[in-house]
């Protein structure tokens, strides 16, 4: 397992992404202004740390930048600005070849769109959400949905909130 530290991460799609980032940082523009210019600010100034052994969940509305953020954590997308450190190494400064050699990088950030959609419908308290995310995080690769279903079978009160009209 790896430690991840994200500092001031931005991902801007469209013309002049560096200029758009600068304008967002200094407050001279809004995301609505950028949109009218054909620019999409997918991730704006994300900063957080995930220590070894922790489970960190990114949740949000459709189109809010979750998948873009995860792709930057995995090194599949380069950020417009900011840094992603894995075990103290800045992966945003690495070449594709160097990135492939980072131990433990693959699989530390996963995107489960079907699971995310289901979880959004559940009315879980913090303890239930933490328990579910721990179950999914401990599941072997490819068995995450099965782990979520097993958790639901063991926690019928949470599922009742989802299935009751």
TrEMBL record:
Q: What is this protein called?
A: ABC transporter domain-containing protein
Q: Where is the ABC transporter domain?
A: 45-135
SUPFAM superfamilies, per this entry?
P-loop containing nucleoside triphosphate hydrolases, Periplasmic binding protein-like II
List all Polar residues biased stretches: 152-165
The region called Disordered is annotated at 141-165
Pfam families assigned = ABC_tran
């Amino acid at each position: 397992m790896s430690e991840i530290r994200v500092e001031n991460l931005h991902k801007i799609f469209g013309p002049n992404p560096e200029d758009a980032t600068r304008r967002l940082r200094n407050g001279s523009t809004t995301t609505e202004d950028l949109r009218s210019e054909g620019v999409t600010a997918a991730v704006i100034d994300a900063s957080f740390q995930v220590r070894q052994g922790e489970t960190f969940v990114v949740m949000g509305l459709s189109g809010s930048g979750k998948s873009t953020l995860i792709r930057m954590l995995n090194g599949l997308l380069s950020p417009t600005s900011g840094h992603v450190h894995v075990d103290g190494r800045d992966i945003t400064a690495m070449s594709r070849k160097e990135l492939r050699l980072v131990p433990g990088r693959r699989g530390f950030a996963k995107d489960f769109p079907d699971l995310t959609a289901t979880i959004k419908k559940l009315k879980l308290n913090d303890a239930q959400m933490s328990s579910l995310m721990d179950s999914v995080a401990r599941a072997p690769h490819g068995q995450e949905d099965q782990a979520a279903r097993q958790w639901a079978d063991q926690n019928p009160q949470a599922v009742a909130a989802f299935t009751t009209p």
